[in-house]
Amino acid sequence: MLAENLQQVRERIAKACARANRHPDSVKLLAVTKIFGPEVIQEAYALGLREFGENYVQEMERKAPVVSGLEGARFHLIGHLQSNKTKKASQLFSSIDSVESAKLARRLAAEGVPLDIMIEIKTSDEESKTGAPEGELPEIVEAVRAHPNLHLRGLMTVPPWSEDAELSRPYFAHLRELAALHRIPELSMGMSNDMEVAIEEGATWVRVGTALFGRRKKV
Ligand SMILES: *Cc1c(COP(=O)(O)O)cnc(C)c1O
How many structural domains is the chain composed of? Predict the structure, then answer.
């Protein structure tokens, strides 16, 4: 099952890259394993996946004893991080992809460990969405770049969910423009339903859960 799904996702990425005149290696796959048990991470690792996305610090804490021995596996936090959880987050994750304030960046810096950082931008007006308002981006970029243990890799965004992937395009295009403005190299955008559009708009990371692992049960 997972092996077939992975092959399909890789084909989708390859086709989108071909359409966009991009090399397939220019898009990295972040396997989103939230809600699934650590055995799913082990299975994905056995198939060659190395980059994993988790949404919750506590959930990662439960899985860590099982998966921390997987050599070369890297875990990204892609969900909201509370400022009182930065210590745990800095121990559990190689990359914090959901930094949404300068204050949070400074707290992560103070933990003193090397971390890859992405800044999450709220590109839509939707109330429920996480991420920083784009007006705060310059301040957050400055806060991250001021600390040598933080490595600013990219910008991340989650557009409003829609059946129609085309509706995500303007949000993806806008994120690309913001990254160019600040000379930020990576773009984490696109999920199971809209990864092709994200790749056409320049995604260097797609975050894929459902298309790999199936539907998540509600918690
Ligand atoms: C859950 C989640 C994903 C994966 O979504 P799918 O639609 O299952 O591929 C990607 N990014 C974030 C931030 C998520 O919370």
Answer: 1
